[in-house]
Design a protein that fits this description.
Length: 374
């Protein structure tokens, strides 16, 4: 073998060595995380069972069903700490039950539960709102209104809007109810409380101003009108009341009249208690009340005897009485003599023994009796 053969052999071996070293030294590819992590199934998400089975939950349910409300609320407190989701479920079930009780006028049991719950959670908005509705159902509208005013600052924005709407409903209904009863002093007292919470409410100011006027307190009535904002929504009512106040200050009383054929009827109040209507009769020397009105008065008016009077049907015997007071518009006469004629039917008569104390005018354009005290 010649030198060329050995040269080729050595070259081949060198190449083989280089290739082997390259293979051994070349960096191996690392396994990815997906290749190294063993595949596992996704763990299922556990959902809360609709049927709560914690001992506290079952205990609260049993106590509530047995009407052991104080104990039930205590169990609810424990549940709220240990199982808040179950406590929430229990809470809303109680709200539903209370709604049902109130709907069915089960007020005693509603009051018992609400007292127990609010003793432990005095600032719970939803329960406080149900307490308001219980007061309304229990014929305690003023207390319900005050409760809503107290609740309002604790509520969020959405709750405050609902509370404001309910307040408007309750206060306006209460004002209408008391006005119909002519319970003016009650309106003054109740609106005074409401205005402590909402000092510039135009509806409350207006209602109180009108009540002051009806009670003859013109200064307070005017003061309330002066407190109304320039942009208030009751301009028409305020203007009417302002005119009445101005007339009262000028000592001219404008009494509304109702047309009755060729005559006029007006409202009167007897003994500051009983309301009726009389027909104006300037030809009658004494005022005549129906016997039914006399019989309804308490205490019984002072009896002064009998007298003969002329009526449209001829002479008749009349019973003469002295009543404590008669009020027409803002004008009041006390120790006032009236007649009762048993044969007389229809409306009583307003006679000159009242009208003689006034410079009066029947304004047929406005249907008003103008009374100017002489």
């Amino acid at each position: 073998m010649g030198r060329g053969y050995y040269t080729k052999l050595i070259s081949f071996l060198l190449l083989l060595s280089v290739a082997l070293n390259a293979y051994l030294l070349w960096p191996k590819p690392t396994k990815t995380q997906a290749q190294t992590v063993t595949s596992t199934k996704t763990k299922p998400i556990l959902k809360r069972s609709v049927e709560s089975t914690s001992p506290e939950y079952q205990q609260a349910i049993n106590q509530f069903q047995k009407r052991q409300f104080t104990a039930a609320v205590a169990s609810y407190q424990q549940l709220n700490n240990s199982h808040p989701l179950e406590a929430e479920q229990l809470y809303f079930s109680w709200l539903d039950t209370l709604d049902s009780w109130l709907l069915n006028n089960e007020l005693t049991i509603s009051e018992a539960f609400l007292y127990a719950f609010l003793s432990s959670f005095p600032y719970d908005i939803k329960m406080l709102q149900l307490e308001v509705e219980r007061l309304v159902k229990n014929q305690q509208p003023h207390q319900a209104i005050v409760a809503l005013f107290t609740l309002q600052p604790m509520a969020n924005e959405a709750e405050q809007a609902a509370i404001s709407m309910r307040l408007t409903q309750l206060t306006q209904t209460q004002i209408k109810t008391l006005s119909k009863r002519e319970a003016w002093q009650e309106i003054v007292n109740q609106t005074a409380v409401w205005l402590d919470y909402s000092s510039e409410n135009p509806y409350h100011l207006m209602a109180q101003a009108n009540a002051f006027y009806q009670l003859g307190d013109l200064v307070s009535a005017q003061s309330n009108l002066d407190r109304l904002d320039e942009e208030h929504p009751l301009k028409s009512q305020a203007s009417e009341l302002q005119a009445l106040i101005n007339n009262a200050y000028s000592e001219v009383d404008l009494v509304p009249l109702t047309k009755h054929g060729a005559h006029y009827l007006l409202d009167i109040t007897v003994n500051d208690a009983l309301n009726t209507q009389l027909m104006i009769d300037t030809g009658a020397s004494l005022t005549v009340l129906p016997q039914t009105v006399i019989d309804a008065l308490y205490p019984t008016p002072e009896y002064l005897g009998t007298m003969m009077v002329n009526t449209a049907n001829g002479k008749a015997t009349a019973q003469r009485y002295r009543i404590e007071s008669i009020k027409i518009g803002q004008q009041v006469l006390t120790n006032f003599d009236i007649l009762a004629i048993s044969q007389h039917s229809g409306h009583g008569l307003l006679g000159m023994n009242f009208l003689q104390y006034f410079k009066f005018n029947i304004n047929q354009q406005t249907n008003q009796l103008e009374l100017d005290k002489q």
